[in-house]
Every structure is written in structure tokens, then in C-alpha cells.
User: Fold this.
Amino acid sequence: MAQSEPGPTRNWGSPGLWLGCMLAAIGIIAGLAITDAIGKYTAMLLLLIPAGLMFPLAKSSKQKNTACGGNSAAQKRYTRRVAIFTSAYLASFALMTFLQEAGEVAYALRVVLALLPGLAILGVLWAVGRLILEESDEFLRMLTVRQSLIATGLALSAASIWGFLQAGDIAPPVDLYWVTIIWFLGLGVGAIVNRVQFGTWGAV
Amino acid sequence: MKNRLKVLRAERDWSQQALADRLGVSRQSVNAIETGRYDPSLPLAFTIADVFGMRIEEIFQRE
Assistant:
């Protein structure tokens, strides 16, 4: 039986392009939300865009790493875990928005619905932690640690500055999940710093 | 720290990927070490020395 030729592989483009799009999307949504140009639920709904952009970003990174002989077993596990938890986030968030739009929701159900997206995000954070523990390549592990530290520094700095501005009645109160969003944005900034300093984006 | 990784690799006609496979690390790691952007840990430096059949100080020197 004749074997068929493998089809042409889709080119997912540069990870930098997708990363830039994701950062820009988060920045624009954050700007619109902070200036009250859009409401809370609209902002949360629009955050599905950068979450969705994680898919082509992961695909293009994987393609680039494969071309460089990269993609360790730990990275593959990380990509799979992030895909699962991001999907869980999108599904739980869609369900929450749908039920809230549908009408009155019981308190207990509201608690469960509000916890689900948060737990899914917790899963992504766990996946980053597992990547650091499981990556056997010390250079790639260092890149991930640097990214995480940059992200943590940015998130805590933003939370501290905004918190004191809020305490001084200068800035409006914002929902706490923005700290996590800034942390993910910080991972992107960390990847750029890695690229500039070490010539590679890293695994996250 | 400077190193002779690139020269030693060229002498053996190994690509970065071939050396990375022998070391059990990524090609990015080899590239970062070669270009002096990253100094390997002592265990990895010993592995590099073993792969080239040399002593660590024959491959890595202080600036």
C-alpha cells in the first residue's frame, strides 16, 4: 500500500508577533477597564481574546523550538497542562457569563461559578511551577525562573503602587484578579528580556 | 568566563545540535554557553569536559 506524503506543515509565524499581540490586547483591555470605558463583565469577556492568543503563541513557540531541536519532555507536559487549564478557564468563564446573563443565579451556584475560573488559573500557575521543577535543562530552567521573577516583581509592584493610590483615594478600586493578569503580562515581558539578554524567548 | 567550546566543536565537525545531544541539553543552551551569555553549572561543565575528553580548565578560562 502506498504511503501518503505528509501534508505541508502550517507556519504559525513568529512567537514574538503573537506575544506582542497578546500583550497589546491585555494592555488595551486594562486601559479601557481602568478608564471605565468598558464594564467589568465586558473586560472579563474581552480577556478571552488574549487567552485565546495563547494557542497560536504556544504553537509558534513549539514550532520554533522544534526547529532548534528544543521542546524537552518537561516543556511538552507544560504545554499540555496549560492547554487543559486554559480550556477549563474559557469553558468555566463562558458558563459563568452565560448563567449570569440568563437571570437570577442562586448564591451557592454563584460561589461555584466564581471559583471555577480562579481554580483554572491556579492550574496554569501550578503548571509553571511544575515546569521549573521538571525541566532538566539548567539553562531553560533559568530562563523560566527569570521570567517568573520578572512577572512576580511587576505584579507585586503594580499591586503595591495601585493599592496605595487607592488608599489615598487617588485611584479607583480594581478587582484583585488583575494582579494575576499583570503577572501573565510579566511573563511576556520576561520572555522579551530573555530574548534580549540570552537570545532565546524561553519555554513559557 | 570565556570558553573554547566553539573551536573544540568545530575541530570535531559537530553541529551545536550534535553537541547538545551528547550533553543532554537543548541547542539553545549550547549556543548560550558558546557565546558567553551563560556560564554552565559545575556538573554541566564536568559533562562538557567528559564529552571532549579534556579537563575543565582546558575548556573554560577566567576572563
